[in-house]
Amino acid sequence: MYSPLNSLAVNVEKQGPRKPVKAKFPLRYGKYSEIKTPEYEFIFNLNGEIKFIRGLNTNWPHPAEQFKRTDGNDWVYYTVGDDSSDKGIISGSSGRCRDRLKFPDS
What we know:
- The chain is 0% helix and 45% strand.
- The chain is an all-beta fold.
- The chain has one domain.
- The protein is globular, with a radius of gyration of 15 Å.
């Protein structure tokens, strides 16, 4: 469902690829729901719990970087690499954890 009035797109029980596929972006396997705004993409599991947040505008560091909520309700930031210098990328590997945030229960 897409609402042009407020640029909000909602997809319920979206089906990801059934077989592993090589891609430049993180793929979502199985069923999930998503809400997209011009700034962010929110991915939910079938229980309605948010699992991933990814930025979609130029203020987000890289399109493949994302926050993931763990089963312990911690937030982990996945990056494609750290800052580069004249020596190249300091430390870069897809899925490397840069920050770990814990939000209070609400």
